[in-house]
Amino acid sequence: MTAYTKLNLRDEVEDMAAGRMPPGIEAHFAKQALDCEKSGVTYFKLGPNFHPPFGHRHTEQEEIYVIISGSAIVKVEEEEIEMRALDAIRLAPETTRAFSAGPEGCELIAFGAPKRQDTEMLRDWWPASAQ
């Protein structure tokens, strides 16, 4: 492994949402592309008012999300928290969470220390009709 790896999260990391998620989301998971050993970073782009119909939580991994443009609401368990550019939120592993983009959409970066088999996806946790 080299001492560093440099790349552009949007342009040089595959969009894993393409063809797997409904239109309106990009998800560029950079853990492997950056040769991360004990951490991970993901770039997300959400279209205006987009949110997936699921939430997720972890067994061990805490995450930090930073809004880099636009605005969003993060649903943390039953609470909805407004976020704007450069707001950051840390979420404990067992906390269920999901993001909904504001009317102009949003871009955000997620930081974590991913472990395999650590994520639980909760389908229909945030129904598509809810905003």
What kind of sheet is the major sheet?
6 strands, antiparallel
CATH level-1 class: Mainly Beta
Query: Which percent range fits the helix content?
Result: under 10%
Give Rg in angstroms.
14 Å
Structural class: mainly beta
What is the string of SSEs from the N terminus onward? EEEEEEEE
Helix run count: 0
List keywords for this structure.
131 residues; mainly beta; Jelly Rolls; six-stranded antiparallel β-sheet; two-stranded antiparallel ribbon; globular
Topology (SSEs and partners):
Elements: E1 25-29, E2 40-46, E3 54-58, E4 63-76, E5 79-84, E6 88-91, E7 97-112, E8 119-123
Antiparallel strand pairs: 1-2, 2-7, 3-8, 4-5, 4-6, 4-7
Question: In short, what is this structure?
Answer:
With 131 residues, the protein is mainly β.
How would you explain this protein's 3D organization?
The chain has a single domain, classed as Jelly Rolls. It is 0% helix and 47% strand. The protein has strands spanning 25-29, 40-46, 54-58, 63-76, 79-84, 88-91, 97-112, 119-123. The strands form two sheets. Strands 1, 2, 4, 5, 6 and 7 form a six-stranded antiparallel β-sheet that branches. Strands 3-8 form a two-stranded antiparallel sheet. The chain starts with 24 loop residues before the first strand and ends in an 8-residue tail after the last strand.
